[in-house]
Amino acid sequence: MTVLVQAAALGLAGALVALLLKKNAPELALALSLAICVMTAGLAAELFAQLRDVIDLAGEQTGLSPAIVSPVIKCVGIGVVTRLAADLCKDAGQSAVASAVELCGAGCAIVTALPLIRSLLQMISEIS
């Protein structure tokens, strides 16, 4: 909960300062937004490390292969990075670039999920 309060305070303060900067120095406002994103992601990194430990434990206890769990975790990470990057591009007024980032993120997620898809197809072929 403390991390959320810190992230919310950081985000709100950064957004307020970015709004003030946007009129006279839009490039500084964008740089500030990027810095706030990086700092907030740093706060969230601790949470994801804890989540990773629980997922590893669940994998050990259930016998799930890391080849099954890992692509899901990576896809979530890709989604988060894609969303942040696309939103920053939109804030800079570059909606076409934001769309390209989103398209690239979708492609990366699909490629990352290929081992999972292969495992699924292999299981189906073994059943039939």
N-end to C-end Cα span = 48 Å
Largest sheet: none
User: Please, how many domains?
Assistant: 2
- Structural class designation: mainly alpha
Low-confidence stretches: none
Please give the count of helices. Answer: 4
Order of helices and strands: HHHH
Kindly describe this structure.
The structure is a single chain. With 128 residues, this protein is mainly α. It folds into 2 domains: 1-63; 65-128. The protein is 93% helix and 0% strand. The chain is built from 4 helices and no strands. Helix 1 (2-24) runs antiparallel to helix 2 (26-62), helix 2 runs antiparallel to helix 3 and helix 3 packs antiparallel against helix 4. The protein is flat, with a radius of gyration of 19 Å. The relative contact order is 0.09. The model has no long low-confidence stretch (mean pLDDT 88).
Could you provide a short overview of the structure?
93% of the residues lie in helices and 0% in strands. The protein has 128 residues and is mainly α.
What does the secondary structure layout of this molecule look like, with pairings?
Layout: H1 2-24, H2 26-62, H3 66-91, H4 95-127
Helix pairs in contact: 1-2, 2-3, 3-4
